[in-house]
Amino acid sequence: MNSGHAEPLDLSASLARELIAAQFPQWGHLPLKPVDPGGWDNRTFRLGDEMSVRLPSAEGYAAQVEREQTWLPILAPQLPLPIPIPLAQGVPTARYPWAWSVYRWLPGQSARLEDLTDPCEFGLELAQFLCALRAIEPAGPPPGPHNFFRGGPLTTYDLETRRALLALGDEVEGDALLEVWEAGLAEAWAGPPVWLHGDLSAGNLLVASGRLSAVIDFGCCGVGDPACDLTIAWTFLAGEARRAFRGALALDPATWARGRGWALWKALITWAEHLDREPARAAKARHVIAEVLADHERATSR
User: Which CATH number covers residue 177?
Assistant: First the structure.
């Protein structure tokens, strides 16, 4: 993506300090350090004890700033878990070409199964969060390029999915996975649009004292089909925790089938991209695909 800069952006702590000092000098004396992991769409820094700074990492993610600044203050009071609260919005400069944000800091660590006191409870609390999100008046932005069509139809990624299957060849059970994909395609969303997070990964779920403590990174949020928020069922949850999550959501089988489709699409393109370059990422994608396929087979054998 072309940012208009000839040189790659230096998304470093020194840049973040420079932006804070110039635009919010009242916070310029506070310590600032990178957050690890710092994110893909954004680079995140902790500012003092109570704030975080997020800089979009590429032009395609820049629109997320305005979306979060507009909608997070509206969503936050209606949700059962903390979400990021914008405190200030920075403006572009000669060194950094996009708007950026300062948020209230949320304590916790990215979710890992080994840190959970009770995975089933985690699944239930996450489902309750999504139910509350879906119940909010759907006045937000519809799916589109701005949020990578989260909440839109699976058909958006049909060609990409089929290309990934071809690229992987004998590495995957092509016919079986195509059946999973086409089962999702066949179940178009017929309900009214509802709010969705759009990027519900383990990295965007915070855990403190073994429990789900906050949900972050709403850059892909919007209103539409909630199926895309189900991918966490196969990328993170398993067994009883997955069943608890599904039961508490009370979604129809068609929506669950589309959710499998979203998880399959992402895992296939990740595996195809990293097959030879990053074995660890390819292995994780392969595991997700196996979980999706097994879940589909259980559903169709009943």
Answer: 3.90.1200.10
Query: What is the average pLDDT value for the chain, to the nearest integer?
Result: 94
Whether the CB-CB separation of 136 and 195 falls below 8 Å is answered with: yes
| Helix/strand/coil for 105 | coil
Q: What is the pLDDT of residues 142-167, one digit of tens each?
A: 999 999 999 999 999 999 999 999 99
- Alpha-carbon distance 3 to 9, whole Å? 9
Q: Is residue 130 part of a domain?
A: yes
d(CA 257, CA 184): 5
Q: Of 57, 89, 106, which marks where a domain is finished? A: 106
Q: Are residues 198 and 287 in the same domain?
A: yes
Domain enclosing residue 30, as ranges: 13-106
Same domain, residue pair 217 and 114: yes
Both 203 and 136 in a single domain? yes
pLDDT confidence tier of residue 8, bands split at 50, 70 and 90? low
What is the structure's pLDDT at 239? 96
Model pTM score: 0.94
Q: Could you tell me if 293 and 146 lie in one domain?
A: yes
Confidence class of residue 242 from pLDDT cuts 50, 70 and 90?
A: very high
User: Can you say how many angstroms the Cα of residue 251 is from the centroid of all Cα atoms in its chain?
Assistant: 20
Other C-beta atoms closer than 10 Å to the C-beta of 227 total: 27
CA distance readout (Å), 88 to 67, 96, 253: 13, 17, 42
| Buried b / exposed e along 6-15 (16+ C-beta atoms within 10 A) | eeebebeeeb
DSSP state of 31: -
